[in-house]
Specification:
Elements: E1 2-4, E2 10-12, E3 15-19, E4 25-26, E5 29-30, H1 34-41, E6 46-51, H2 58-65, E7 68-71, H3 78-89, E8 94-98, H4 104-109, E9 112-116, H5 124-129, E10 132-134, H6 137-145, H7 147-154
Parallel strand pairs: 3-6, 3-8, 6-7, 8-9, 9-10
Antiparallel strand pairs: 1-2, 4-5
């Protein structure tokens, strides 16, 4: 996905890195409307879901969505693992979406960071670290499905 944002730069985005709990889902289950939007986005970006698998739903989400779900290493700094994951993909080609304190570093690292005001709440540090904040995950995914909305929000 190529995005030219006036006053910023042109982005050649390839990856969509998403937090699971609190962003795409609640209590380990996907929020309604997420699956069909991610199915559409697969033609534009390669989605990858990162999770500590707190609720044990990672395998079900992987089956349901047919995308890569990476489970973080227990006992190691989750925020750092997420940022490293984004860097390993090539941060300049990544859109990252999250809501929690453990998403702050990946939101900063990614070319475009989107913070979601989710049903689990949103860490103030995540809001401050993102390029933009959306009311819910469906709005965030819709921005990517209709990238001119994203351009309109981020242009200077």
């Amino acid at each position: 996905m190529r995005l030219s944002i006036p006053g910023r730069r042109t982005y050649d985005l390839e990856h969509l890195v998403l937090d699971l709990n609190g962003t795409l889902g609640l209590d380990g289950k996907l929020l309604e409307g997420v699956a069909p939007r991610l199915a559409l986005l697969k033609s534009l970006l390669r989605p990858v879901i990162l999770t500590a698998d707190t609720h044990g739903g990672a395998a079900q989400v992987r089956r349901e969505l047919g995308v890569q779900v990476a489970v973080l290493e227990a006992g190691r700094d989750e925020a750092l693992q997420k940022a490293e994951f984004v860097r390993d993909l090539g941060a300049e080609r990544v859109v990252a979406v999250g809501n929690g304190a453990n998403d702050v570093l990946m939101l900063k690292e990614a070319a475009i960071g989107i913070c979601v005001l989710g049903p689990e709440g949103t860490a103030t540090e995540a809001v401050a670290s993102a390029d933009l904040v959306v009311l819910d995950i469906l709005t965030g995914l819709d921005l990517l499905l209709h990238p001119q909305r994203l351009v309109a929000t981020l242009r200077r």
